[in-house]
Design goal:
Blueprint (H helix, E strand, L loop, with lengths): L2 H18 L1 H27 L5 H5 L3 E7 L6 E6 L13 E8 L13 H4 L3 E5 L5 H10 L4 E5 L27 E4 L1 H13 L5 E5 L20
Parallel strand pairs: 3-4, 4-5, 5-6
Antiparallel strand pairs: 1-2, 1-7, 2-6, 3-7
Helix pairs in contact: 1-2
């Protein structure tokens, strides 16, 4: 029943009840129409709150926050490796971990120029030139605790997608967790650290977003989910 209909019907009913059944029933009728109006408004308020749930956003992905530098202080999404490596939150978790851009970036060899900085930390590496598993094995070989892969080639067709990282069907494996970071995030993180002459970013990983409303998540302004 619409509000307009209520405004027409209520006065008519009140006049009839006032003449025929007295004050007692008049009060009862007012209460009933008040209840109807409340339910009608409540249903619309619930409808206004309908929308995407945080659980829909998470969908099996992993999230982390950059705490420093402040210019990168947002929450980022990772697509975890599908069938190799450990698990973020179990194999590796830290409230003040270091995200270190690997040198060389492709991690296709264990001969890292900044191997000492990777020990116990998360390596930020570039997609391509070898399998995802090979990269993880090389990071693990120098003491890296986890790996985040990203795309730096903006001309590639799937630059705007989260890539499913799968095993390369060899008899090898790794114990460290790995995740894929959207290319735009990876480029901005790496460029910002280079511009500020910083060897790493401080991160909190993983972040539990289960009980946070979607509009409260601090998403990067250049890449809303």
């Amino acid at each position: 029943m619409t509000r307009h209909a209520l405004s027409v019907v209520v006065p008519q009913v009140l006049r009839v009840w006032r003449r025929q059944v007295g004050l007692h029933y008049l009060v009862s009728t007012i209460c009933w129409f008040t209840l109807i109006s409340f339910v009608w408004c409540g249903a619309n308020n619930l409808h206004m709150n309908d929308g995407v749930r945080t659980q829909d956003i998470i969908a099996g992905d992993v999230f982390f926050e950059i705490l420093e530098p402040s210019t990168l202080e947002y929450t980022y999404r990772l697509r975890p490796a599908k069938d190799f490596g450990g698990t973020f939150g179990i194999s590796y978790k830290s409230q003040e971990g270091k995200l270190v851009p690997a040198v060389p970036a492709d991690a296709c060899s264990a001969k890292f120029e900044n191997a000492d900085e990777l020990v116990g930390n998360i390596a930020l590496v570039e997609r391509g030139h070898c399998s995802f598993l090979t990269k993880a094995i090389n990071v693990e070989a120098v003491g890296g605790a986890a790996m985040i892969v990203t795309e730096y080639d903006t001309e590639i067709d799937d630059f705007d997608y989260y890539i499913e990282m799968v095993h390369d069907n060899t008899d090898r494996d790794t114990d460290i967790p790995a995740g894929f970071l959207h290319g735009k995030n990876g480029i901005i993180i790496r460029q910002t650290l280079k511009k500020m002459n910083l060897p790493y970013a401080i991160v909190n990983i993983p972040v539990n977003l289960t009980f946070i409303q979607p509009h409260m998540i601090n998403q990067p302004p250049w890449l809303p989910w």
